[in-house]
Each structure stands twice: as C-alpha cells, then as structure tokens.
Amino acid sequence: MIAKSKPMRASVAILIVGVVCALLPGCSANDAAQQGQSTSPTGEQPLEISPEAKSRRGSIVESQPVATPSPPLADLKSKQFTVVYRSVSGIDGTGRDVSGTVVVPEGTPPPGGWPVIAYGHGVTGIDDACGPSGYPDLLGYDLVVASLVSLGFVVTLSDYEGLGHPGTHPLLEPRTAAFNMIDSVRAAREIAPSASTKWFAVGISQGGQASWAANEFAGEYGDGLELLGSASMAPVVDMSKFATLAESGWLSMEQQALLPMLVHGLRATHPDLDPTDYLHGALSRNTDVWLACTGPLVQQRLALSGELRETDSTPVSKEAGEKLERIFAEYSMPQRPATAPMLVITGANDDTVRAQWVRTAVENACGRGDVVEFTVRPDEGHSNLNGGPRLSQWLTERLDGAAPVDNCSEV
C-alpha cells in the first residue's frame, strides 16, 4: 500500500551517479565468560531451518508491475515490480514473507543472463510503514537503483523482514538480513528468467552490514547461486562502543538521534531491553518523532535534535550499558569467514559509525582469511560518502574475472 504522506528522502550516498551521467563502559569477553554470558556472534550459533521454509526460499507470493515509476526509473528501459517473496528468519529458522522491489533491464541480456545486485538500504525505520517498496521514490533509493540498472544489472531492493509487509523487523540481526538479501536474488530470478545465477551483495549503512552478512552466509545458504562479491559502504558493522561513548557524553548529535531507533528496534530480538534505561529528556519524549520514517514527523526531528543534552543518552547504570554493549557485540561483523571478495568503503568523518569501528571489523575479517579491499575516504561521512566510481569499477573487475585487490596487510 502506498503511503499518502510525503516520504522522507533518505540520506543516501549516490553510489554510481558520477559514473553513469545512509558506543559503553562494558564488560570484556573474559568478564562475560565469567558471568556465564555469551558474546558469540549470532552467526556462529547453529540454526536449523525447517524443511518447508527451505523449500520455498525466494518463491514469489505476490508480484505487481509498477505502472508509473519515479522519474529516475521511468527514464530507463526497464520493468519494475513490487513483490512479496518467501524468506527465512535468522532467529528461529521458520519461513517469513518479505516485501521488496525488483527492476529488470529490457533488451538482450549478456551471455549467461543479467547479473543481479541485491542492494541493501540504510536505516529507514522499524515498522511495516518503513519499507522502500511502498513509495514511488523507494524512500530515496530510486536514483541508486536506476544507476545500477543502467550498468546492466537486475536490481533487487529488499525491504527486510518486518518493513513494508506485516511482521516484526529484527533490526541489525545479521543472519535474517543475509537471508532476506539472498532470497531476494532467488525472487528476482523467478520474476526475470533472463537473470543470471551470478550476483553481488551491495549496501550502505544498515544495508552495508546486510551485504557483508550476505557474503558470509552465501556459501551455506546461497546454494544454486554464485556470489561474486560484496560491497559495503559506511557499514553498521560494529556498534559495541556506542554505549561507552554514551556514558562518557561523547555521542554525536547524529548518534543520539539514532539511539531511539536502535533501542526500540533491538527490542524485537531482546524484549527485555528497557528503553528508559537509555533514553532520557528529549530522547524519551516524542517517541513517534524519533521512530518516524515518513511524513511531517520526520521534519520535526531536526528541531528536537537541537534540544538534546549529553545526559539524554547516558545509560542509567553500568549494568545497563554492558547489556546494550553485549547485544551490539552479538550482531557485529564479522560473524564467520566470507564466501567471496569484499569491498568496504567508509568515511573518515562519519559521525554515525566511526571509521575506526569499521576498520576493527575489517581487521577481524582479515584475520579470518577474508579478501578485503578497504578504503577510508577523507573529508566524507555517513551521508555524503562517494564510493560510486570505485564500486562501478570493482563490479566490472569481478565480472571480468580479475584478481581482487586485497590490502589486508595495510589495514
């Protein structure tokens, strides 16, 4: 259903446009082990997928052609579809319906079919009104999708479970995000028989984490598909130091404004997380504004951000801070060795996900033997990251079979 209110234009780094014309004082791992608390990544814990759910992965439940695409997409020779497809919960292994968008180039595909890009969007919200597929401009992602289609890719943009379709969104839970992205490729190939089995996972912010996770789970979960690599822009890959900054009063305004979304969103998988332990003052008031993804409420957020104080985001106790830190640590990347090469680009001036947090995740991935090309772009941040030129070149290199750049030794 299309929302009647004017959607928020997401703060999206325009990934390709320039080529073709978005944390606590905590316990250590040893402390947690002594207390009997697990800090193991979610992905290291075995998950049994029900046979019914496994057999229906990526199958189309609903499909509707988009008659009037947004201008960037309307200018292309392509077909756009709003879909609901089957995927799997990374929490309990049962089937879920997930909505999304599929855009297919017209014309003659290359030998083997159109390669597919599963694109992961950034944080839009936490409820079913926040799926990009429900809006003509895809909540600001239409230009990115159009740019990728222009390069000769089938593009699928998953809303993720619980966004755009009834359900609960497990914010930042990496295994579910990975399954949703991988199954969106299966759904795209059902919509477009001209699509190849070759695909990429690409994303920004929350989608950067999702694309990274999709790479790690593709070897086990992506059977029948051939992942050529993943590209993660400003990825939300490790927020475990978020709480440390909060207690010290060092959260940026952008981080404080994001905190209500994070705390309320994490309650989907950790219902015992109490928002009053972390949100005070201006952050505890006007919850509908902080959680809004569309309409006039979004416009009020900037004004409310000016009322924020350091103490508004300080955990009420050391124990509360440690609890939030453990949850972020469970969902941090890497979870397991990657399946294919990785491109990771972040900005030195990122005030949401600090460059050092991303660097640490890359270091850990390199330590697992992953092949990673990592770049920190100077004078750029979370919402103005320009990784497009390198991304376009990197995609071409993978399709051509060139050896991937691996600068792990320099990280």
Task: Give a topology summary.
Blueprint: H1 17-20, H2 29-34, H3 51-55, E1 60-65, H4 71-74, E2 78-88, E3 95-105, E4 114-120, H5 142-150, E5 154-158, H6 174-191, E6 195-204, H7 206-221, E7 226-233, H8 242-248, H9 253-266, H10 287-291, H11 296-305, H12 318-330, E8 342-347, H13 355-367, E9 372-377, H14 388-400
Parallel strand pairs: 4-5, 4-6, 6-7, 7-8, 8-9
Antiparallel strand pairs: 1-2, 2-3, 3-5
Helix pairs in contact: 6-7, 8-12
Tally of DSSP helical segments? 14
**Class derived from helix and strand content:** alpha/beta
Strand content: 15-25%
Determine Rg (CA atoms, Å). 20 Å
Helix content: 25-40%
Mean pLDDT: 89
The third-level CATH topology of the domain at 49-235 and 335-355 and 369-389 is Rossmann fold
Largest sheet: 9 strands, mixed
Q: State the fourth-level CATH superfamily of the domain at 49-235 and 335-355 and 369-389.
A: Alpha/Beta hydrolase fold, catalytic domain
Name the helix and strand elements from N-terminus to C-terminus, one letter apiece: HHHEHEEEHEHEHEHHHHHEHEH
Total beta strand runs: 9
- Write down the CATH class of the domain at 49-235 and 335-355 and 369-389: Alpha Beta
Roughly how many Å apart are the termini?
Answer: 46 Å
Neighbour order of strands in the largest sheet: 1-2-3-5-4-6-7-8-9
Tell me what you see in this structure.
By secondary structure, this protein is of the alpha/beta class. The chain has a domain at 49-235 and 335-355 and 369-389: 3-Layer(aba) Sandwich (Rossmann fold). Helices cover 33% and strands 17% of the residues. It has 14 helices and 9 strands. The chain has helices spanning 17-20, 29-34, 51-55, 71-74, 142-150, 174-191, 206-221, 242-248, 253-266, 287-291, 296-305, 318-330, 355-367, 388-400, and strands spanning 60-65, 78-88, 95-105, 114-120, 154-158, 195-204, 226-233, 342-347, 372-377. A 9-stranded mixed sheet has the order 1-2-3-5-4-6-7-8-9, sandwiched between helices. Helix 6 crosses helix 7 (206-221) and helix 8 packs antiparallel against helix 12 (318-330). Residues 1-39 have low confidence and may be disordered. This is Secretory lipase. GO terms for molecular function: triacylglycerol lipase activity. Residues 31-43 have a biased composition (Polar residues). Pfam families: LIP. It comes from Mycolicibacterium rhodesiae (strain NBB3).
